[in-house]
Amino acid sequence: MENLRLNVALLRRKVPNLTSAARSVGLRPATVSNLCTGKIPVGRAEVKTLVALASLAECSLDELIIRGEVNEMVETGIKTVDLFAPLAKGGTIGLIARPGMGQLVLLAETFHRLRKQGFVTMLLMPEGEPSEIQDLLDQYDIIAYTIKEAYEQIEKIGKKESIAFAADRSHVVTGEIIHLQEKLLVKDLKPVTTFLVDLKGEAVDEDLPYGPLETVWQFDADLTARHLFPAVNPLYSTSTVLEGAHLDQNHLSIQQRAKKLLRRYRELRSLVAIRGLENLPSTEQHTFKRGERLEAYLTQPFYVAEEYTGKKGENVNLQETIFDVRKILDGTTDSLDKEQLTYIGNLT
């Protein structure tokens, strides 16, 4: 059962407005979202849920549930992304944030890094050409101003090159992105990895803001307020890449241990704010301190922000990240202050 997963591409094609459709048949959109991203394994889903989804998509259960390899991971060198919510090549990635949380900087940084890996980067310009986009245009090889222009460029370039394509949620709401992806499915093209952003922050409060996604990067207001960037929430961000036995088990083990620590650390933050750290049991004090160190380590200087931060961008490959996080979890770095781990690359 470990290599079973939902046919997300089929769901996206057949049921564009999955949020409303799920509610109409008595399904919780959050449950559907978690099944799509792999947060809830298909093997643990209720049969009636799967039957309802198949009915919505007007397909058989055999078509809805597919067996085989999960999406290939694209390593970005961004620690928190690669560890907790890896980029799924050829998938759809949703960035869920309110304005000012750094989502556009993370998008620009990701595209900067993907270009170095040979991806052609493309942006479908949002209506009104918002000012916050202007400073980031250098990271895109192609700027399209209409969905038709975007399709023509992808069809032309995608025969030879992998493409990273970004669009605003406004194009999702109109159904244009769904239609575009539907047209591309029948073409013999290299993978098109689609990034969906929400410039207005309207999707934050929705259970299923973009429809089925392979990867979700959920941004965190608390991390943003404390200037810990990238402010991607490691507990709520997820990816289909993390499904089943196809993931490096060392990666999965460290990721789960890190999530457990960060979850408890966040609980303890509230207690510390009220009672003070010294009033916690000694074991909880150790947990709190290690959570602080891990949270600090997951910050990272970006290449696209060097001009503004004065810090040189850092690239940390996944194996280095796993090795470093293990050291933090095991207490090897207990002698270090969190400041020594903030905005660094790797530990060496």
Brief overview, please?
With 348 residues, this protein is α/β, with parallel strands linked by helices.
Show unreliable segments.
none
What is the CATH homology-level superfamily of the largest domain?
A: P-loop containing nucleotide triphosphate hydrolases
The total of helices stands at 16
Instruction: Tell me the domain tally.
Output: 3
GO molecular function, one term: proton-transporting ATP synthase activity, rotational mechanism
Keywords: ATP synthesis, ATP-binding, CF(1), Ion transport, Membrane, Nucleotide-binding, Translocase, Transport
Subcellular location: Membrane
Protein name: F-type H+-transporting ATPase subunit beta
Can you tell me about this structure?
The protein has 348 residues and is an alpha/beta fold. The protein has 3 domains: 4-67, 434 Repressor (Amino-terminal Domain) (Orthogonal Bundle), CATH 1.10.260; 73-246, Rossmann fold; 249-340, Bovine Mitochondrial F1-ATPase, ATP Synthase Beta Chain, Chain D, domain3 (Orthogonal Bundle), CATH 1.10.1140. It is 44% helix and 12% strand. It contains 16 helices and 11 strands. The chain has helices spanning 8-14, 18-24, 29-37, 47-57, 61-64, 79-84, 103-116, 131-134, 147-157, 169-173, 176-185, 221-225, 249-275, 282-297, 306-309, 318-330; strands spanning 4-6, 65-67, 73-74, 87-88, 92-96, 120-124, 142-144, 163-168, 192-197, 215-218, 238-239. The strands form 3 sheets. The chain has a 7-stranded mixed beta sheet, sandwiched between helices. A two-stranded antiparallel ribbon has the order 1-2. The chain has a two-stranded antiparallel sheet with strand order 3-4. Strand 6, helix 8 (131-134) and strand 7 (142-144) form a beta-alpha-beta unit. The longest helix is centred in the last third of the chain and has 27 residues, at 249-275. Pfam families: ATP-synt_VA_C (PF22919). Residues 246-307 form the ATP synthase A/B type C-terminal domain. One of its GO terms (molecular function) is ATP binding. Keywords: ATP synthesis, ATP-binding, CF(1), Ion transport, Membrane, Nucleotide-binding, Translocase, Transport. It is found in: Membrane.
